[in-house]
Automatic annotation (TrEMBL):
Principal subcellular localization: membrane
TM annotation in the entry: 40-60, 81-107, 119-136, 148-165, 185-212, 233-253, 282-306, 327-349, 355-375, 395-416
Localization of this protein: Membrane
Membrane topology: Multi-pass membrane protein
Record-given protein name: Divalent metal cation transporter
Keyword vocabulary terms for this entry: Membrane, Transmembrane, Transmembrane helix
GO terms for cellular component: membrane
């Protein structure tokens, strides 16, 4: 029991990873996978979580041992590697938060029947509210609040999953002909599902920085074993919730012939209404809370992560700039990210899909390289041999790099052809 208490007390980076990852990849893609293709899609979801595991684990491993960020590890490899990561970060800076916030704003408006207000205005309110939470509360508040949010989300999803299983499969599922998975449409959907499951590989740097912040809040440095156990709890939770969303989509929508919207906002509203039709109107608030908690927690963690990683990259690239070392730099970064991404929403709101497509393209193409950089970092000279990944984990890493490379090449070919 004492070991469990210590583990729960030290829940931090793994919990934040789960909160950040359980966003559109789960709410939209996992649910859609179950709705369109049925239970068979549990295979690619599990496969993606297994093959990508080492890349995120290395972020925790490197920081737990060296007490340095993964960004510092890239710099130790050579400045060119840090510039590669900086490029991916720049693209994320101008797209990811704008996309997440506008989806969350639209979801909030749909779920709670808010009319006559522009989505960009609701997004601005969310930017202000979350920015204040991050600036005033800092890492400790983020960690503690997410324990509550993830707990609510987890309980709501367990109850929802049990309810839909008890209600049983919707009529028509047994005679329904599943769409082909290995044609062009199916392959592209698989790329989206597995490419963003559990999240983009560059988020390994975010996990490393959260681990750095977690170390500052602890009286005693945790062992590598404890740090990895804590992360594994969050990672397992991420994979489990993806399967929950898949089951909900499969039981509730598979075989109905319902055409699901490509828009995350419209899709979320469709799903909530379909759930209540299947379970009962009384369940609306339960589904609404689960859906909004999913996106709100993702906005909060992603906003924090993009701010922190931008600061770390700039400090490593320009170490002589005194203003980058000031205590107020985190506040400036959080507000800058909010302002930049709200301007993106205002200017490109109608073309957000194109911006997200750009971020997706860069993330997919760069993923194998970042995965290889992570391996090179945790097997480098600043990592004691005793703490380097074992041969089994290295083999899994190489398999993951091959997996990501195939995805990147195919996606690149699809884009240019």
């Amino acid at each position: 029991m004492s070991k469990l208490k210590i583990l729960l007390k030290n829940l931090g980076p793994g919990l934040l990873f789960a909160s950040m990852a359980i966003g559109t990849s789960h709410l939209v893609l996992s649910t859609k996978a179950g709705a369109q293709y049925g239970w068979i899609m549990v295979i690619p979801i599990i496969l993606a979580n297994i093959l990508k595991y080492p890349f995120f684990e290395f972020g925790i491993r490197y920081t737990a041992v060296t007490e340095k960020s993964l960004v510092q590890g890239y710099l130790n490899l050579g400045k060119k590697y840090l510039w590669v990561y900086a490029f991916v970060t720049i693209v994320s800076t101008f797209t990811i938060l704008a996309a997440l916030y506008i989806v969350t704003a639209g979801l909030f408006m749909n779920l709670f029947s808010i009319e006559n207000i522009e989505a960009s205005t609701v997004a601005l309110c969310l930017f202000v509210f979350i920015s204040l939470l991050l600036i005033i509360g800092k890492y400790q508040f983020l960690e503690n609040s997410l324990k509550a949010i993830i707990s609510i989300l987890f309980v709501a999803l367990i109850i929802t999953t049990i309810l839909v299983l008890q209600k049983g499969q919707v009529p028509g599922a047994e005679t329904y002909q599943r769409p082909a998975i290995l044609n062009e449409v199916g392959i592209l959907f698989l790329i989206g599902l597995m490419g963003w499951m559990p999240t983009a590989v560059e988020a390994s740097g975010w996990v490393s920085l959260w681990s750095m912040e977690n170390l500052k809040t602890m009286k005693e440095k945790p062992s590598l074993k404890l740090a990895l156990q804590e992360f594994n709890v969050g990672y397992f939770l991420t994979a489990l919730l993806a399967i929950f969303f898949l089951i909900i989509g499969w039981i509730t929508l598979y075989g109905t012939g319902t055409e699901l919207s490509g828009s995350a906002v419209v899709f979320a509203d469709q799903v909530v209404n379909l759930f209540t039709t299947h379970i009962g109107n009384w369940a609306y608030i339960l589904i609404a809370v689960a859906a909004f908690a999913t996106m709100f927690s993702t906005c909060m963690t992603a906003h924090d992560a993009v701010s922190r990683v931008s600061i770390d990259v700039l400090q490593k690239l320009f170490p002589n700039k005194a203003y980058l070392q000031k205590n107020s730099i985190f506040t400036i970064a959080v507000l800058s990210m909010a302002l930049i991404n709200w301007i993106v929403i205002k200017l490109f709101g109608g073309n957000m899909e194109n911006l997200v497509a750009l971020a997706t393209f860069v993330s997919f193409v760069m993923a194998p390289l970042i995965g290889w950089m992570n391996l090179k970092t945790v097997t480098g000279k600043d990592m004691p041999k005793a703490y380097r990944p074992k041969s089994s984990l290295r083999i899994l890493t190489y398999l993951g790099i091959i997996f990501l490379s195939l995805f990147a090449f195919y996606y690149f070919w699809m884009v240019i052809s």
